Amino acid sequence: MFSEFDLDKRLLKAVDKLGFEKPTPVQTAAIPPALAHKDLLVSSETGSGKTAAFLLPTLHQMLAKAAPETGSRMLILLPTRELARQVMKHFKQLAAFTHLKFALICGGETFKFQRAMFRKNPEVIIATPGRLLEHIEHGTPDFEALEFLILDEADRMLDMGLSEDVLKIVSCCNVDRQTLLFSATLNHRGLSKMMAGMLREPEAIRLNSVRDRHQNIRQQIIVADDSLHKGRLTDWLLSNETFDKAMIFTNTRIQADKLGSYLRSRGQRMGVLHGDLEQDERNRIMQLLRQGIINVLVATDVAARGIDVKGVDLVINFDMARSGKEHVHRIGRTGRAGEEGLAICLISPQEWNLMSSVGRYLRIDFEQRTVESQLGKYKGPHKVKASGKAAGTKKTKEKKKEKVVKAKQRHRDKKNIGKRRKPTVQIEDKPTPSGFKPLMKKK
Predict the structure, then answer these.
(1) Which phi-psi region, left, alpha or beta, contains residue 150 (left: φ > 0; alpha: ψ -120 to 50)?
(2) CA–CA dist 17, 321 (Å, integer)
(3) What is the pLDDT of residue 271?
(4) pLDDT digit string (tens) for 325-348?
(5) Alpha carbon of 94 to those of 13, 35, 97, 204, 339: distances in Å?
(6) How far is residue 295's CA from residue 233's CA, in Å, rounded to a whole number?
(7) For FRET with 357, which of 73, 101, 307, 367 sits at 20 to 30 Å CA-CA?
(8) Distance CA 353, CA 356 (A)
């Protein structure tokens, strides 16, 4: 029970209102040391309750120690706007019965409006690195009295090339602070460099790694000839699978728009989300999905992290994810909080090797599935019989050896064409007297 953590009554009231009955494993492991003001390194899978794991202990400490005359007391850095808005939503829910104020600082909003928000001196700043760094360069925020620094999805920030921006921001923060770093994996290349000098004797909590299986998510593959065939398969799946909400991932914005137009023409209630859309349009699409006005979202990887929409029980990878980590975050949109989910990858001939490497890295045994009414020409790679190969190996080697010997012989014969052969010498087979040499005759 959350009451065992001895949290502020206002926070417990908010937890009860949200219907949280018992803490998740990551919350059970992270909240006590965070309450003890320790720096933490936490690795946990998506949908495991990480947001509450860092908000509850830090909000409790802020409520226990009033500091009305200081600047911002907590900074939460996140890689994408969607994830920042998701954390903002959780903050509003958990701090509903408190006086704590926040400011959301990310791209897509007016710069002057955000400067005005800083002037109101909010206790909590929820931001993406790029936009926050712009404000720092203009001398707007004040982090000299910062008490808590939280980096969520730190590995994603590194993948997006934001490590330098993050380090610049950290250098402007109060040295005597508590730092909590959450990541899908603590073995990410470059993570140790980013952590150097940022954390003080951190306690590492490893609950899940990116290679751990999602036990409550069924993972299937369906082979397809090309993008047109994938489009027909996607429409069939959306028309025949039972789901509340579905998310479809593509690797490019152009493909997302094309697929969205096709599915819309087929009568699907859907929307498209990618980085080219204005922030207002992205917010509108997400609101339509949460309200159930649309039940299908076609998105690029901008939506793979930070979107927590209830009822997503089907994920379709129209394009295979480029890496194992991206695959994990895509399928992590379903099967959240212990619910069952289904993830289907549509695999073209060019994607088979990529799918195989992702499966080996994540230790996934994909279930191969066929849709009888939508069969294509491609059936998967051709398999070579091991017995036939083994049987012919010895004979093949012997034949190759014979060919090499014959080739050498022919080459030597060609070199001797037209040349006069040297005379051979023969020794008479007769006894010779002592002191005489044997007689030699020409042939």
Answers:
(1) beta
(2) 37
(3) 94
(4) 889 888 888 876 667 889 999 999
(5) 9, 16, 8, 25, 23
(6) 18
(7) 307
(8) 5
